[in-house]
Design brief:
Elements lengths: L38 E2 L3 E2 H11 L3 H15 L7 H130 L2 H27 L1
Antiparallel strand pairs: 1-2
Subcellular location: Mitochondrion; Mitochondrion inner membrane
InterPro entries: ATP_synth_Bsub_B/MI25 (IPR008688), ATP_synth_F0_suB (IPR013837)
GO cellular component, one term: mitochondrial inner membrane
Length: 241
């Protein structure tokens, strides 16, 4: 960014992106401990003693503390007065109270914490149960969705069978109707032929009857009578034998 004598230079922006590119920034955040670390004399961390042990030995931290206190008092960096004794008294009372009532208070606080943790665990278990049930329901719905395709295929097959059955019924109905019409035509032709035959017979018979004269009729009757008499004599002769 450039600026001249007549203009005011804007504040320069500091690029902070490089501060978040270290490998540690991608590491997961460690979980907070449920209980604090070990201490000595109530306020001094155990890590300080472990840090000084390799260099100063076991008495090194105490010698360092005593020497530091002596230096502060000798140089009058800290001057002992009535406030010092008041602070000592207050510290003694506080330490006594912590030693006397600390375990009970800690047990009460732990009980409250356990109740909260138990409630949170119940809520978590309930949520896990509901989520697990939701997963099972989702799997069941997916299984149903997979079976739905088979159901659709079966329905398509049923529809195709119904269509095929309907088509065959219609074909059968058409066949029966055509057969009835053909049978009707055959019966009609048979009736015409029979009527023609009857008409022909009646016509021939009528012509034959009309063609016979009275004399022929009398001769025919006489011939029939004579034949009957001859047959009667023959039958009598057979009977007499």
């Amino acid at each position: 960014i450039s600026c001249n004598k007549t203009s005011v230079c804007p504040p320069r922006l500091v690029q902070l992106s490089h501060l978040h590119t270290s490998p540690n920034s991608q590491a997961p955040v460690p979980a907070l401990p449920e209980k604090g670390g070990k201490t000595r004399h109530g306020i001094i961390p155990e890590e300080l003693f472990q840090l000084l042990y390799p260099k100063t030995g076991v008495t090194g931290p105490y010698v360092l503390g005593a020497g530091l206190l002596t230096y502060i008092l000798s140089k009058e960096i800290y001057i002992i007065n009535h406030e010092t004794f008041a602070a000592a008294c207050m510290g003694t009372v506080i330490i006594y109270g912590v030693r006397k009532f600390g375990p009970d208070v800690a047990a009460f606080a732990d009980k409250l914490n356990e109740e909260k943790v138990q409630k949170a665990q119940e809520v978590k278990d309930l949520a896990m149960t509901s989520l697990a049930q939701a997963i099972q329901d989702e799997k069941k719905e997916q299984w149903r969705a997979e079976g739905r395709q088979m159901l659709f295929d079966a329905k398509r097959n049923n529809v195709a069978m119904l269509l095929e059955t309907n088509h065959r019924e219609r074909v059968h109905m058409v066949t029966n109707e055509v057969k009835k019409r053909l049978d009707y035509q055959i019966a009609l032709q048979t009736l015409h032929r029979r009527m023609e035959q009857e008409h022909m017979v009646n016509w021939v018979e009528k012509n034959v009857v009309t063609s016979i004269t009275p004399q022929q009729e009398k001769a025919s009757i006489a011939k029939c009578i004579t034949d009957l008499k001859v047959l009667a004599k023959v039958q009598q002769a057979k009977t007499a034998k």
